[in-house]
Amino acid sequence: MLHEFISANRAAIIARTRARVAQRSAPRATEDELATGIPMFLDQLVETLRLSGASTDAMAASATKHGRDLLARGFTVAQVVHDYGGVCQSVTELADETQAPITAAEFNTFNRCLDDAIAQAVTEYTWQREQTITSEGAERWGALAHELRNAIGAAMLSFQTLRSGRVGVGGSTAALLDRSLRRLSTLVESSIAHVRIESGRRSSERVSVREFVEDVEVGASMEANAQNLTLSVGSVELGVDVAVDRQLLAAALANLLQNAFKFTRARGHVSLKTSWTENRVLIEVQDECGGLPPGDTAALFLPFEQRGPNRRGIGLGLGISRKSVEADGGQIRVKDIPGVGCVFTIDLPRLRSAMPVA
Fold this sequence. Notes:
Layout: H1 2-8, H2 10-22, H3 31-50, H4 56-73, H5 77-97, H6 104-135, H7 140-164, H8 172-199, E1 205-208, H9 209-226, E2 230-233, E3 241-244, H10 246-263, E4 269-276, E5 280-286, H11 317-327, E6 331-337, E7 341-349
Parallel strand pairs: 2-4
Antiparallel strand pairs: 1-3, 4-5, 5-7, 6-7
Helix pairs in contact: 1-3, 2-3, 2-5, 3-4, 3-5, 3-6, 4-6, 5-6, 6-7, 6-8, 7-8, 8-10, 8-11, 9-10, 10-11
């Protein structure tokens, strides 16, 4: 098997990779990278290959630990990508020169594992950087700027890897590029919403809730499909209107939906439904997160507050959602459904037909 071939020729592969990396013009190889980094990369690939028949959770855990180790040693994301590529080329060359009896299927598995390892390590690396930034008490906009930089860096490196031809467009690296671009879109929309709120530059208008929800459904359905989730959207009657800043309400609802997608179990379901009375309009997002963790639910809307198991990001979305809704004279609240999930509700005043828009 391929991982046995790599293990048996470990010293030769490390020597080849070190020679290749040492000649790299950018990023310049470091002493620690050559001495200890290259063996770490090779051992990680062997471990990933060994686990290729095991659960994806085991593979992800191994690659995640490797990403954490890389950060602790001071490696950059560029070094991660280039060094994995150097190991891959060395293995391929040696196998060809020695005419090792390795099947095409094993090489396909090897390339897939390489793809997964790069994506997992880069993801963990960027997340660890975000956590380091926030744990040091970075200011709100400084944290957002760093997260934007990390998302852009991950997207650019993913694209470079795809362009090199070492991995396919249907693998984990392409998925990382997709996630990074969607994360950038979310950050930009949240930042715009925050600026509009803080500057007082709101623009209230009459908004048809039916048309608004239909517009939201298009993007939300694509997001749900990308994460292997189902989304149901309830219908809204004509004549149900609110007086709001459309962009702020869209940002608030987008944050709630992305939060639901983030925490809902694999192949789970998220629902978006609207109800109304003579005076109020309620827009509800229900997920299947398993229920809220212990603690005061009001704290969920505080900046940097994260209590769930998935701590990607820096915990600003719910806080921005609350400010967006409150700026339109509404409220946002959460209800826990233990063992199932939770429901976030946007509660807005309904605009009567004779009421002028402020």
